[in-house]
Design a protein that fits this description.
6-stranded parallel β-sheet, alpha/beta, 172 residues, 6 strands, globular, single chain, Rossmann fold
Length: 172
C-alpha cells in the first residue's frame, strides 16, 4: 500500500513554531493562506521545528512493514534540501518527498491509495476521485478542523488511530 502524509502539522509541529515567531495564536494557514504560510517557512525556521514523536514511530513502523511512505508538503521548492535533511535528521523513513499544491492529482498519479492530512479543504480535492483510487482519506483532528465533516473522511485523534486505520483492511 502506498500512503501519503502531509508534513506540516501532522509530522512536523510547524504551526506552533510559526505561532511563536508571529506572536499569534491563530493557525497560520487560516490567517495567512497557504501561499503566505509557505513564504514564512525559511530554512532557519524549518530546522528548529520539532517532529511529533508518535508520527516518527508510526511512519517507521509502517515503512518496516512494507508500506510505501510518501510525504507531501505545500512548501516552496527551494526548501526541498533543508526539508529532506530535517526528515533524515529525525530518522523519518520515507520513499518520496513531494512538493506540490495539487496533492490529490499527484497522489493519484503516484497510485497512492490512502492519504492523511490535517487540512479539511485539501482532503476535499481527493473526493473528486472514487474509493477505488483513494480508499482511505484520514483527517487528523486539530482544533481548526473539528467543525468540518465529510462522509468519506475517517477522523483520527492520535497517531495510534492512524496506524489502526491504515493497517485495517478496507471492505468498502
Amino acid at each position: 500500500m502506498r500512503i501519503g502524509f502531509i508534513l506540516d502539522d501532522l509530522i512536523s509541529d510547524t504551526s506552533s513554531l510559526l505561532k511563536s515567531e508571529l506572536k499569534s495564536d491563530v493557525y497560520p494557514f487560516s490567517k495567512y493562506g497557504i501561499e503566505k504560510f509557505g513564504s514564512m517557512l525559511k530554512p532557519s525556521v524549518i530546522v528548529r521545528a520539532k517532529p511529533f514523536v508518535e508520527a516518527i514511530d508510526v511512519i517507521n513502523l509502517l515503512r518496516k512493514r512494507g508500506y510505501l511512505i510518501n510525504i507531501f508538503c505545500d512548501r516552496p521548492r527551494n526548501l526541498f534540501t533543508v526539508t529532506s535533511a530535517w526528515l533524515k535528521r529525525f530518522d523519518i523513513r520515507f520513499d518520496s518527498l513531494v512538493f506540490t499544491m495539487d496533492k490529490a492529482t499527484v497522489a493519484r498519479d503516484m497510485k497512492i491509495t490512502s492519504f492523511v492530512d490535517v487540512d479539511f479543504n485539501s482532503l476535499i480535492d481527493f473526493t473528486n476521485y472514487d474509493r477505488m483510487v483513494f480508499s482511505k482519506l484520514v483527517l487528523f483532528e486539530k482544533s481548526y478542523n473539528m467543525e468540518k465533516n465529510h462522509p468519506r473522511f475517517i477522523r483520527a485523534k492520535s497517531w495510534n488511530d492512524i496506524r489502526k486505520v491504515l493497517t485495517r483492511r478496507s471492505y468498502a
